[in-house]
């Protein structure tokens, strides 16, 4: 049986749950099967070695030790965080309803936000100035409508959505441990989030985010929310993985239309063609979600049933043991930014982890002022004042650069103090 909703684990049970989920090749599906089979984590831990040997031709399994998990609990307490178990009163009901929810969440901040209605805002790390401005407006307007904004603390759209909703409270879902912030430059942003909002992770303390950890995070982002808004996403991007999760979880998917000349809009325009809700402002989102909030309902539309080519093929998120001849169903899809070597276990104690390493394509290079401006511009005109504000550049230098780029034919200046990129001259500038 699983933990009965509304009841809390004892300290001993919590430690057993942590040992079980941190053991080798035990993911959410295997965890649930073991709890249901043996009635509790302690009995499952006792039975696991023999069960693995019988099911895997004599194979042995590394079970997380009591000492390792006690160290993790101490590390959680040191940063003022806590563990919430599936079925406990503070565990978010929306996430509990998804397929294979995390058995344990580590949370830090305002835990009461987990019981509020939430919407995810996600999109390109390499966002345009127009996309960033729209994310800012959406987050501000939806937070003003009493919705909690959820995102993944990534560069670009995610960070802008978090910053725009700091005052009302925002939830950041991390791909690594709560003490291993990725990207590292968002450590200060996370501290600001925690003052009024919440940080969430299912990964061990000390865990450096790796390839499959990002789709794992994405399923939590969408699973916490009634709907997911995608603002700028190239084809096969991580944002589309989150959109698929939202759809599979029975949640609403919203897409912001973009210029067909901008590669950053290809994924969102594809979503619209497949039936996603169009999003041109907060009113579009509220008209769909308000009836669901008032009636406590979840949508069950399947946008991609006949359009699998839109998104990458599915792949399991964990290497889970098949102990009961019931292999776990595929749960996620790797995007081009998730091509890290796959790990075989969710658990490694911090002292035995590999040295911190970030995929080369995820490390943000130091851009020149020229490169930064070109990356922010899109075929959709944006106010020059907004562009300079996003760039955080000296006004005189930015305006001089605009003049140079116009002379080179790389940008167009439009009436009303607007500027847009010339897509015929600036191909290859934008990549998600």
Secondary-structure class: alpha/beta
Helix count from the secondary structure assignment = 15
Biggest sheet, in brief?
A: 9 strands, mixed
Number of strands: 12
Tell me the β content.
Answer: 5-15%
What do these coordinates show?
This protein is of the alpha/beta class and 432 residues long. It folds into three domains: 69 residues, no CATH class; 218 residues, 3-Layer(aba) Sandwich (Rossmann fold), CATH 3.40.50.450; 53 residues, Arc Repressor Mutant, subunit A, CATH 1.10.10.10. 37% of the residues lie in helices and 11% in strands. The protein has a nine-stranded mixed sheet with strand order 1-2-6-5-4-3-7-8-9, with helices on both faces. Strands 10-12-11 form a three-stranded antiparallel sheet. Helix 1 runs parallel beside helix 3, helix 1 crosses helix 4 and helix 2 crosses helix 3. The longest helix is centred in the N-terminal third of the chain and has 16 residues. 47% of the residues are buried. About 11% of the residues have low confidence.
Topology:
Layout: H1 11-21, H2 28-38, H3 41-55, H4 66-78, E1 82-85, H5 93-96, E2 104-109, E3 118-123, H6 129-144, E4 148-151, H7 157-164, E5 170-173, H8 187-196, E6 198-201, H9 213-223, E7 227-231, H10 238-248, E8 252-255, H11 266-273, E9 277-278, H12 282-295, H13 369-376, E10 382-383, H14 384-391, H15 395-407, E11 411-414, E12 418-421
Parallel strand pairs: 3-4, 3-7, 4-5, 5-6, 7-8, 8-9
Antiparallel strand pairs: 1-2, 2-6, 10-12, 11-12
Helix pairs in contact: 1-3, 1-4, 2-3, 6-7, 9-10
Quick gist of this model?
With 432 residues, the protein is α/β, with parallel strands linked by helices.
């Amino acid at each position: 049986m699983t933990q009965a909703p509304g009841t809390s684990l004892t300290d001993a049970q919590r430690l057993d749950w942590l040992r079980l989920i941190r053991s080798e090749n035990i993911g959410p599906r295997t965890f649930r099967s073991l709890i249901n089979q043996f009635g509790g984590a302690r009995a499952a831990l006792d039975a696991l070695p023999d069960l693995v040997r019988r099911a895997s031709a004599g194979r042995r399994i590394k079970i997380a030790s009591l000492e390792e998990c006690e160290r993790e609990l101490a590390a959680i307490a040191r940063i003022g965080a806590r563990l919430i178990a599936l079925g406990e009163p503070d565990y978010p009901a929306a996430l509990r309803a998804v397929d294979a929810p995390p058995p344990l969440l580590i949370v830090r901040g305002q835990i009461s936000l987990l019981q509020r209605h939430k919407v995810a805002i996600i999109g390109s790390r390499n966002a345009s100035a127009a996309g960033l401005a729209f994310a800012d407006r959406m987050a501000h307007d939806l937070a003003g409508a009493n919705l909690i904004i959820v995102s993944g603390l990534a560069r670009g759209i995610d960070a802008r959505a978090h910053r725009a909703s700091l005052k009302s409270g925002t939830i950041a879902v991390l791909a690594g441990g709560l003490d291993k912030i990725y990207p590292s430059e968002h450590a200060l942003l996370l501290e600001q989030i925690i003052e009024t909002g919440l940080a969430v992770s299912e990964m061990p303390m000390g865990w450096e985010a790796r390839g499959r950890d990002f789709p794992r995070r994405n399923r939590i982002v969408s699973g916490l929310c009634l709907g997911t808004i995608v603002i700028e996403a190239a084809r096969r991007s991580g944002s589309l993985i989150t959109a698929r999760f939202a759809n599979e979880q029975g949640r609403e998917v919203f897409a912001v239309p973009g210029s067909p000349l901008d590669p950053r809009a290809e994924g969102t325009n594809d979503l619209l063609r497949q039936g996603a809700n169009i999003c041109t402002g907060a009113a579009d989102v509220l008209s769909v979600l308000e009836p669901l909030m008032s009636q406590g309902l979840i949508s069950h539309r399947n946008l991609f049933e006949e359009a699998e080519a839109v998104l990458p093929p599915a792949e399991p998120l964990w290497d889970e043991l098949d102990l009961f001849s019931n292999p776990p169903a595929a749960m996620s899809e790797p995007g081009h930014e998730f091509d890290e070597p796959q790990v075989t276990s969710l658990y490694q104690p911090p002292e035995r982890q590999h040295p911190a390493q970030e995929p080369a394509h995820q490390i943000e290079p130091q851009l020149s002022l020229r490169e930064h401006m070109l990356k922010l511009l899109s075929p959709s005109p944006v106010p020059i004042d907004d562009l300079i504000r996003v760039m955080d550049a000296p006004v005189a230098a930015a305006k001089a650069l605009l003049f140079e780029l116009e002379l080179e034919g790389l940008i167009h200046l439009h009436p009303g103090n607007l500027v847009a990129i010339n897509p015929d001259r600036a191909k290859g500038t934008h990549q998600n």
